[in-house]
Write a structure and sequence with these properties.
Helix content is 27%, strand content 23%. Helix 5 packs across helix 10 and helix 8 runs parallel beside helix 9. The longest helix has 14 residues. The structure holds NADPH dihydro-nicotinamide-adenine-dinucleotide phosphate (NDP) and zinc ion. The site of NADPH dihydro-nicotinamide-adenine-dinucleotide phosphate has 29 residues, from helix 1, helix 5 and helix 6.
Length: 356
C-alpha cells in the first residue's frame, strides 16, 4: 500500500509499505475523509517529537472498516467510523486514574504518526478498536465529522480544562481550528464575554459565529494588555492557549485574574525558544501565590468521546463544517492539504480531503 510519510525531519513524500496486520483487538481501516493538523507540521518541520524515518503521517480520519480482530464486536467490515486522533490503551493504569490520553506513559495514547504509521495511507491500523472506534452517524456531513477526532476533541478539552464559570469572561489566545473549537466550547460551557486573539480574516469571521464577543489582534500590541484595558484592569476568569509560541503562557498569566485557570492546548515544538524553556513572568504569575492554575492536556480519544462530539453536531449546537475552508478529492491530495496547513494563507482554517 502507499502512504504519505515523514521521510526525516523537514522532508515528506510518498512511500510503499505492507498493509498493517490486524491483531485480535484491532481494526484495519481505509480512509474515508482526512485532515492534516498543525501538529503534523510541528512533527515534520520542527522535529518536535524527534526524528522519524518513513513514518506515515496523519491522525485525523474518518474511516471505513476493512477488517476486525476476533475480539471486536461493535464494528464490522464496511462500517463507516470516526477514528479518534488519540487511541488509548483502555484498562491501562493511567486510564484508570482518569488520564486516558496518557496510557503507557506521557502522551502514550497518541500513536498515529508518533509511534506508529498514521492515517494518511491506503490502510491504517487501530488499536483497541472496540473502545476507540465510533460509528459515524449518517445524518452528519463528512466535512463536519472529520473535525471530531482532534479539532473538536482538543478545542473542547481546552474549554473543559479552563473551569469556566457560567457568565465568566474567557480569553482564547489563537483562533486556528483548535482555538475556534475552544470558543465554541467556552460558549457551550456558559461563558459570558469571550475574547478571541488572532488576525487572519477567515478565522476572525468564524470566531464571531462561534461566540467571540471581542476580537484582539496581537499585531496591535500585547494581547494581554489589550484585554486588561478592555476589562478595566480586571482580566479574565479563564484562558485557553491555542496558538503562538511559548510566550503565550506569559500573556495568559498576565490576562488571568487571581484564581483563574490557564488551559493550554499548544504543542510547543522544539526550537521555538533558544533555551528550550517555557518562560513564565514571576509577577504576572502572582509571584507563585495567586492561585493561577496552568493546566495542560492531550486530545481525549475513545468511542464515547467521539459519540458525544457527534451529538453536538447532530443537535445543531455547533457546525464545525464552517472550518473546512478547502475541500480536496482523493488521497493523493493529502500532500497539497498538508502544504496548505504549513503556509496557512489568510483564508485557510482547515483543508480536508475526501477519499472516496
Ligand atoms: P493554527 O496555526 O491554525 O492557529 C494558531 C493561531 O494562533 C492563529 O489564530 C494565530 O493567529 C494565533 N497566533 C499566532 N501568534 C500569536 C500570538 N503571538 N498571540 C496570540 N495568537 C497568536 O493552529 P491550530 O488551531 O491548528 O492548533 C493550535 C495548537 O494546538 C498547535 O500548537 C497544535 O499543534 C496544537 N494541538 C494540540 C493538540 C493537543 O492534543 N493538545 C491537538 C491538536 C493540536 P493568526 O493566524 O492571525 O496569525
Ligand atoms: Zn491533529
Amino acid at each position: 500500500m502507499k502512504g504519505f510519510a515523514m521521510l526525516k525531519i523537514g522532508e515528506v513524500g510518498w512511500i510503499e509499505k505492507d498493509r498493517p496486520k490486524c491483531g485480535p483487538n484491532d481494526a484495519i481501516c481505509r480512509p474515508l475523509a482526512l485532515a492534516p493538523c498543525t501538529s503534523d507540521v510541528h512533527t515534520v518541520y520542527e522535529g518536535a517529537v524527534g526524528d522519524r524515518h518513513n513514518m506515515i503521517l496523519g491522525h485525523e480520519a474518518l474511516g471505513i472498516v476493512d477488517e476486525v480482530g476476533s475480539e471486536v464486536k461493535s464494528v464490522k467490515k464496511g462500517d463507516r467510523v470516526i477514528v479518534p486522533a488519540i487511541t488509548p490503551d483502555w484498562g491501562d493504569e493511567a486510564e484508570q486514574r482518569g488520564y486516558s490520553s496518557q496510557t503507557t506513559g506521557p502522551l502514550g495514547g497518541w500513536k498515529f504518526s508518533n509511534f506508529k504509521d498514521g492515517v494518511f495511507g491506503e490502510f491504517f491500523h487501530v488499536n483497541h478498536a472496540e473502545y476507540n472506534l465510533a460509528k459515524l452517524p449518517p445524518d452528519i456531513s463528512l466535512e463536519a465529522a472529520v473535525m471530531i477526532p482532534d479539532m473538536m476533541s482538543t478545542g473542547f478539552m481546552g474549554a473543559e480544562n479552563a473551569n469556566i464559570p457560567i457568565g465568566g469572561t474567557v480569553a482564547v489566545f489563537g483562533i486556528g481550528p483548535v482555538g475556534l473549537c475552544g470558543i465554541a466550547g467556552a460558549k457551550l460551557r456558559g461563558a459570558g464575554r469571550i475574547f478571541a486573539v488572532g488576525t487572519r480574516p477567515k478565522p476572525v469571521e468564524i470566531a464571531k459565529k462561534y461566540g467571540a464577543t471581542d476580537i484582539i489582534s496581537y499585531k496591535n500590541g500585547n494581547a494581554a494588555e489589550q484585554i486588561l484595558e478592555l476589562t478595566d484592569g480586571a482580566g479574565v476568569d479563564s484562558c485557553i492557549t491555542s496558538g503562538g509560541g511559548p510566550d503565550i503562557i506569559m500573556d495568559a498569566m498576565k490576562a488571568a485574574k487571581a484564581g483563574s485557570y490557564i488551559s493550554n492546548n499548544n504543542y510547543f515544538g522544539k526550537g521555538m525558544t533558544d533555551k528550550d524553556w517555557i518562560p513564565l513572568n514571576r509577577a504576572d504569575w502572582g509571584v507563585g501565590m495567586a492561585s493561577k492554575q496552568l493546566i495542560t492536556g492531550l486530545c481525549p480519544g475513545g468511542k464515547v468521546r467521539m459519540e458525544r462530539l457527534a451529538s453536538i453536531i447532530q443537535t445543531g449546537r455547533m457546525d464545525p463544517a464552517l472550518m473546512a475552508t478547502h475541500v480536496f478529492k482523493g488521497l493523493d491530495k493529502i500532500e497539497d492539504a498538508l502544504a496548505m496547513m504549513k503556509t496557512k494563507g489568510p483564508d485557510v482554517i482547515k483543508p480536508v480531503v475526501m477519499c472516496e
